[in-house]
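Please decode residue identities from the backbone states below.
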């Protein structure tokens, strides 16, 4: 749902919204948002989710009930007892 909600931020999405077929992705060589290139796959659940496998986490670290890719950096900071700045581009 977060990926779909972000489409309404027209500063970065523009006027056209496309989703790739399941198992395929769109590649962008460079843009204001993806300097150096990037890619986006479909919005299908199978292209939008991945497993998060952990072992030996400190007791003070709690996994979210539905972890997202963007939660990994915060979890790493918590494990290392480094303060989380709140934004990935501020690390």
């Amino acid at each position: 749902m977060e990926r779909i909600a972000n489409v309404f931020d027209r500063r970065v999405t523009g006027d056209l919204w496309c989703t790739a077929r399941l198992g395929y992705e769109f590649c962008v060589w460079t843009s204001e948002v993806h300097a150096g290139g990037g890619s986006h796959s479909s919005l299908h659940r199978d292209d939008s989710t991945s497993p998060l496998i952990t072992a030996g986490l400190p007791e003070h670290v709690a996994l979210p009930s539905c972890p997202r890719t963007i939660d990994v950096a915060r979890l790493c900071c918590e494990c290392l007892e480094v303060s989380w700045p709140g934004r990935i581009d501020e690390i």
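Observation: The chain has a mean pLDDT of 76.
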